[in-house]
Amino acid sequence: MQREEKQLEAALEALLQRINDLKTSIRTLLFRLENEYGSLSWPSVLDSYAVISGQMNTLLKVMKNDKTPLLRNLIVLPLVLSPDPDEELKQATEGRVVAFSHDITPDMLRTKPDPDVEQRQNQFEQRALQVPPETAQKQINAMNKVVNHVLEQITHSREDWENEATVRANAAHTCIIADTHALIAAVGLGKNLKTLPTAAPTQPGPGRAQPGPAPGKTTSTIKTTIKAASQAHPYNR
């Protein structure tokens, strides 16, 4: 008797550990979906699903292990029913169950679905049995064809998205960000503009005098390309 109890305790401890790992992974994925949806990528979501799937398989292996007793042959009976809050129960259930009262006990210890749900499930099973095997196989083949087509479309779309993202990342820049910022600062704030000194008057001579800069005129140290005057201004209507 003591040996069976020890095996049961060890099996329950192993199951609880696997369930806690699974619960942590699901909680992490839900947190990322709710708070990091803007930067969350599809491959990372698939990785999370793969981890959850692996943990589910591990949990099933533990339950099917030869050392794990058949839990279906065991029953759980409440020792105490009380409407008063139980801090240990609240902590064990992470706040989901505050008190083990008469109202919540049937739902917590239920091993079968609700009678209404069970009745509807039986009706669906009866309807499924009435379908001829050939017709059912045709419907299954048609559904598989639709699902495979959808999977192909998703795969192609994913490849297109990844290729487009790669092309955008590797695309050459058509401008220099530093020069753009410098030009905006010069136009809006007059930054990096130098004031030229007042030019001395030139003496008339036989040759044609070169005009000097106007007094107070400023020149920019920023190199820009001056477009032809004949080009249409973008703001002209």
TrEMBL record:
Alphabetical UniProt keywords: Activator, Nucleus, Transcription, Transcription regulation
Subcellular location: Nucleus
Major localization listed first in the record, in broad terms: nucleus
A GO molecular function held by the record: RNA polymerase II cis-regulatory region sequence-specific DNA binding
Residues covered by region (Disordered): 197-221
Pfam families attached to this UniProt entry: Med8
Highest taxon in the source lineage: Eukaryota
Assembly mode: Component of the Mediator complex.
Known function: Component of the Mediator complex, a coactivator involved in the regulated transcription of nearly all RNA polymerase II-dependent genes. Mediator functions as a bridge to convey information from gene-specific regulatory proteins to the basal RNA polymerase II transcription machinery. Mediator is recruited to promoters by direct interactions with regulatory proteins and serves as a scaffold for the assembly of a functional preinitiation complex with RNA polymerase II and the general transcription factors.
Protein name as it appears in the record: Mediator of RNA polymerase II transcription subunit 8
Organism: Daphnia pulex (Water flea)
